[in-house]
């Protein structure tokens, strides 16, 4: 609590005591019970005497009281104004709100009354009403009797005290009897409490600076206040949120920030203005939407504050407030070596391309500061992707992939394109048009190795593979599909991973003729996907059974296209051999026969090998040709494919017997 040694409190007490003496000695008004509850004959005479044109208290009596107390008031006022150059919370607030000395005197008086029941009783006596313990506009005029003092104008709607949301004034009743008081948050602040205003938008963050107020009481910038010249409304767009904040910190070095969403109510706007004023903070409004009309008025009126609107894109000019502004664009949100060293204490890891915001999140999620970054980066992406995609941790390698030589070479070139992006686009300065991202198209029948190839490429790059679940992405509700896909691409960009869209023609198919509203929005989805692919910097694999179903606009964006065909006999032989682990008990398997006779995909071969293993395990026997042939039969049945004697040859009778299942034990 403030003490009498506080110049602000001393000045307030001198003003109150002086006016009390005027009331008691000059006006001859004694304190009385139930003051203001009724008007008696003596009250009526005294009221009539104060009206213009009638005799009031003897002027010489009032002048004598004021003259007697004037020296003490002069000393108190001089000490108070000298203290405004100090470092007390009150002095700092006066500078931050750019208050004039009269404004500061009114602030001191209201604060003193607000925090003292004794002073409130004194105010009730001055106003001759127990119902008025707070100062009214008329009483302010009376206390600051100097004609040159703008007493009532200090609490006018456009006054510095009101623009800074420090003082509140009642909105009902006669103008003269409207009470004035300090906002509760201001009272707590002056008593050293830093609890945030309860009306601030949810999620508001206060980021302290390393210096206090940068302006004098009259609003003049002090010498050496670098970064505070020029327009105090800054529009920052592009990059990521953390990069935009970094640009703000460079614009106002040393200043603290109040970071919040665009307020949605009058109380919210008032809380933001008040909180920023109390802490001398730069207000950073994070919003991709412009302020509404009420918000624009607040920004235009609160000229004592520095404002920033941080958005992903440019805002419409007509939505901006009527005050000078400056616009800056963040070219890239990618963390640079300085960011890596500051946040993680290491040089950048070339395997990960993180924004500044993502880098901070990874640092928070990293449990072992000396360990690899991979787990923390995967945790960053996984929180967003788990509901929309299936995570595949690559386990298989190039040795598990059986493809024609040229197809295998294309896949290795695909991995090399991703691995060497930093050299080509960074060191050699090739223009990344439209982005540094890579889009691969894997086409071919089911089971020909598209998913396996994506897994092998991801494993070679040391990345996770996320197989997008189309059922959770595509929505019948207009606009929801784009929102889901945006979440996927944002999360994927954070984690530097491989996105795999299976049956991609469901999302990337040809645009249709517009016959109804659904066709129109379906085409919008396709256009959105194309735009998002062009701006994505990671690796995307599109898999489809039929390449001709893919929209031509997507084909122009393809970096690598691999057509997966059914394997030839030598390749089928290799796939059969690799489908049986070295630890599996096999006997007399004629792999040359099955590779020659059955022209099937690699996926079907793996399924048949696994089915044969289960048949043998149930019989507690080794895996034989009988089990393999029966498993192939089951795969044909699933596909609805005929079993011909030309294919099965000597095993034809086995697959056509009714009792060809394994005997029961």
Automatic annotation (TrEMBL):
Keywords (A to Z) from UniProt: ATP-binding, Nucleotide-binding
Species: Plantactinospora solaniradicis
Family membership: Belongs to the AAA ATPase family.
Protein name: ATP-binding protein
Location of region: Disordered: 199-225
PANTHER family in the record: 26S PROTEASOME REGULATORY SUBUNIT (PTHR23073)
Gene Ontology MF, one: ATP binding
InterPro entries from the UniProt entry: 26S_Proteasome_ATPase (IPR050221), AAA+_ATPase (IPR003593), ATPase_AAA_core (IPR003959), P-loop_NTPase (IPR027417), WHD (IPR054472)
Family annotation (Pfam families): AAA (PF00004), WHD (PF22977)
Domain AAA+ ATPase: 436-568
SMART domains: AAA
């Amino acid at each position: 609590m403030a003490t009498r040694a506080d110049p602000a409190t001393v000045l307030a007490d001198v003003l109150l005591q002086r006016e009390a003496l005027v009331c008691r000695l000059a006006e001859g008004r004694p304190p009385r019970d139930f003051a203001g509850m009724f008007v008696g004959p003596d009250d009526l005479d005294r009221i009539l005497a104060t009206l213009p044109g009638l005799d009031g208290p003897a002027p010489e009596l009032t002048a004598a009281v004021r003259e007697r107390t004037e020296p003490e008031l002069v000393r108190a006022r001089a000490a108070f104004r000298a203290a405004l150059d100090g470092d007390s919370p009150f002095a700092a607030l006066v500078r931050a709100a750019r208050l004039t000395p009269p404004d500061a005197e009114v602030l001191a008086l209201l604060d003193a009354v607000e925090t003292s029941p004794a002073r409130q009783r004194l105010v009730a006596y001055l106003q001759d009403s127990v119902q008025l313990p707070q100062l009214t506009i008329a009483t302010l005029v009376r206390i600051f009797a100097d004609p040159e003092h703008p007493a009532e104008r200090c609490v006018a709607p456009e006054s510095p005290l009101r623009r800074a949301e420090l003082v509140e004034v009642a909105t009902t009743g006669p103008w003269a009897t409207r009470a004035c008081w300090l906002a509760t948050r201001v009272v707590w602040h002056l008593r050293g409490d830093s609890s945030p205003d309860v009306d601030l938008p949810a999620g508001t963050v206060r980021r302290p600076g390393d210096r206090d107020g940068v302006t004098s009481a009259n609003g003049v910038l002090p010498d050496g206040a670098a970064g505070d010249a020029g327009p105090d409304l800054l529009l920052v767009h592009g990059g990521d949120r953390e990069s935009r904040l970094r640009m703000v910190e460079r614009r106002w070095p040393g200043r603290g920030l109040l970071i919040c969403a665009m307020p949605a109510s009058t109380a919210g706007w008032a809380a933001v203005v008040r909180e920023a004023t109390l802490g001398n903070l730069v207000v950073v409004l994070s919003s991709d939407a412009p302020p509404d009309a009420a918000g624009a008025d607040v920004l235009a009126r609160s000229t004592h504050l520095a404002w920033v609107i941080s958005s992903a894109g440019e805002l419409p000019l007509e939505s901006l407030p009527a005050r000078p502004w400056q616009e800056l664009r963040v070219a890239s949100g990618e963390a640079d070596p300085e960011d890596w060293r500051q946040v993680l204490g290491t040089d950048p890891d070339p395997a990960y391309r993180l924004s500044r915001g993502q880098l901070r999140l990874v640092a928070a999620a990293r449990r072992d500061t000396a360990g690899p970054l991979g787990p923390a980066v995967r945790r960053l992406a996984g929180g967003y992707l788990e509901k929309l995609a299936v995570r595949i941790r690559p386990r298989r390698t190039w040795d598990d992939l059986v493809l024609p030589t040229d197809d295998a070479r294309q896949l290795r070139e695909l991995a090399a394109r991703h691995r060497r992006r930093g050299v080509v686009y960074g060191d050699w300065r090739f223009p990344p048009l439209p982005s540094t991202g890579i889009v691969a198209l894997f086409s071919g029948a089911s089971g020909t190795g598209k998913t396996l190839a994506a897994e092998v490429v991801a494993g070679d790059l040391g990345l996770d593979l996320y197989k997008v679940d189309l059922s959770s992405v595509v929505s019948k509700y207009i606009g929801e599909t784009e929102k889901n896909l945006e979440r996927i691409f944002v999360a994927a960009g954070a984690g530097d991973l491989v996105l795999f869209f299976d049956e991609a023609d469901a999302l990337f198919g040809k645009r249709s003729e517009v016959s109804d509203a659904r066709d129109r929005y379906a085409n919008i989805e396709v256009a959105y996907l194309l735009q998002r692919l062009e701006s994505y910097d990671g690796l995307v694999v599109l898999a489809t059974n039929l390449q001709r179903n893919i929209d031509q606009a997507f084909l122009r964006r393809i970096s690598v296209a691999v057509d997966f065909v059914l394997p030839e006999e030598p390749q089928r032989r290799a796939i059969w051999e690799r489908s049986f682990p070295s630890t599996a008990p096999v006997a007399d398997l004629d792999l040359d026969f099955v590779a020659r006779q059955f022209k099937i995909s690699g996926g079907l071969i793996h399924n048949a090998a696994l089915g044969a293993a289960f048949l043998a395990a149930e019989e507690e026997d080794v895996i034989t040709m009988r089990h393999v042939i029966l498993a192939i039969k089951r795969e044909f049945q699933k596909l609805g494919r005929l079993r011909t004697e030309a294919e099965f040859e000597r095993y034809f009778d086995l697959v056509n017997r009714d009792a060809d299942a394994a005997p029961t034990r």
